Amino acid sequence: MIITTKRSNLRYFLDILLTALGWLFFIYLFFAGIVAILSGGMQGPHIPLVLPEFLTSAQSVISYVIIALINANLLIGWAVYNQFRFTGKDRRKPPQPLTPLQLQKSFALSPALFDDVQNADVMVIYHEENNMIGIIDIINESPESDTDLKNIPKTAKKITVPI
Known about the structure:
Layout: H1 9-38, H2 55-86, H3 100-106, H4 111-119, E1 122-127, E2 133-139, E3 157-160
Antiparallel strand pairs: 1-2, 2-3
């Protein structure tokens, strides 16, 4: 079952606009940095090297590699610690399956209505503001198109569940 929520067009447009602006800003900064390095605008210490214009970039890359190695060691250490600590312990056991009586009580359905719901081919459930089931449309014959529930057959049984 896939449950989707439609976003408003304004929010969708805003997401696209902010993403595009972020990428444009990144590309601008990236190429501005490359141009500054190649034009000699960024200078490192005056040590004779083969390519002195890349010295500042090399220092930045080295510091990034050192930080990445420290982060990698921390994460690997944390993973090894958790592996030793939690080996053999399964805390994610599935819950016990519910009995039909427990399901019936959970949804506050009468035995007859519960049987109708169990035997339904298609059903549309409408909830009230307090998240309780308000109306159940039970359809005992499948519509021609599974994706188009607007054309509900005339044999649909509309049931209003008492609160």
